[in-house]
Every structure is written in structure tokens, then in C-alpha cells.
Specification:
The chain has 158 residues and is an alpha/beta fold. It contains 5 helices and 5 strands.
């Protein structure tokens, strides 16, 4: 691991009841904010939008639907995970085949600098599908500190 995963969670990158009209609007808003805060390069937004079209990132579990948009490390300045809980769901295409639409409420935009760290992070996030207590906190809690601590626990694979 090139980076301590718990350090990837930043309070300024946790948004609750985030509003977006669709996937492109959501990724554009999140990407623009990440650029404004210095986490990503100017090239990031175009790169992540293109990648999402070719390699969709929606994942559906029994009681959970998430999206994990990400792009190549060359577009990242500072590694982090940008979490948004949406006020209303947004449609993402399903990861893999990319045919089915998934109504996503939780979005984890990965701002990761190495392929190994990206694979590790994806694996940790997949754990959410079996960690129902953590998923419920992310979906329902109004306590930002509780959400922060839950995100740190998830990305650290605790």
C-alpha cells in the first residue's frame, strides 16, 4: 500500500443529501469541487466522465446500490475518497456489462494515485455489501462524525 487508507477520508469530501439531476451532473459537480480543493488536475473531469461511459461503476447488492467512479492516477494530485449520499437516486450503468441501470444513492469517487491502491480500495468498498450495519449508517445517519468514522473503518477494512 502506498498510502494509509484511513488518511484518504477527508471531512471536506463528505457530502450528505447531495443533489444532482443525473450521473453527468453529479460527476461534474463532484469533480469540479475536487479540482477546486486541489485534489485533482484540470484533466480529471473529462477523464472521469469518459471512463464512466466506457467502464460503468454502478454496483447493486441486496439492500444497497453504490457507484465508484474513478479514473487514471495521472489526473490526481492528492489521494482521497470523495463520498456523497444523494438526496435522490441517480442512474448509473451496472459495472461489467454496462446494460442495466442502477438507482444509486451512495457514491464513492476514488481519487487514487496507484493501481494497487485502487484495487485495494475497490475491494474494501465491496465489503459494504456484507457489512449491512455500516451500509445503514452511510444511508441513514445524520451525524457527520459517525459517517466519517464509518468511512475510515470501511476503507481501512476493519
Amino acid at each position: 500500500m502506498g498510502v494509509n487508507n484511513s488518511e484518504l477520508i477527508r471531512e471536506e469530501l463528505i457530502f450528505l443529501d447531495y443533489e444532482a439531476s443525473d450521473k453527468k451532473d453529479l460527476i461534474t459537480k463532484m469533480g469540479t469541487y475536487a479540482q477546486l480543493k486541489g485534489y485533482v488536475k484540470e484533466s480529471f473531469l473529462e477523464a472521469i466522465l469518459k471512463r464512466e461511459e466506457v467502464y460503468p461503476t454502478g454496483l447493486r447488492g441486496e439492500n444497497l446500490a453504490i457507484a465508484i467512479p474513478h479514473t487514471d492516477a495521472i489526473h490526481i494530485n492528492e489521494p482521497a475518497v470523495f463520498f456523497s449520499r444523494l438526496k435522490n437516486t441517480v442512474k448509473f450503468k451496472e459495472m461489467g456489462i454496462g446494460v442495466d441501470d442502477i438507482d444509486v444513492q451512495l457514491v464513492f469517487m476514488l481519487l487514487i494515485k496507484t493501481p494497487e491502491d485502487q484495487v485495494d480500495m475497490l475491494s474494501n468498498l465491496m465489503g459494504l455489501f456484507v457489512k449491512h450495519d455500516m451500509a445503514e449508517i452511510l444511508k441513514n445517519s445524520t451525524d457527520k462524525e459517525e459517517i466519517y468514522n464509518t468511512l475510515v473503518s470501511i476503507v481501512s477494512n476493519n
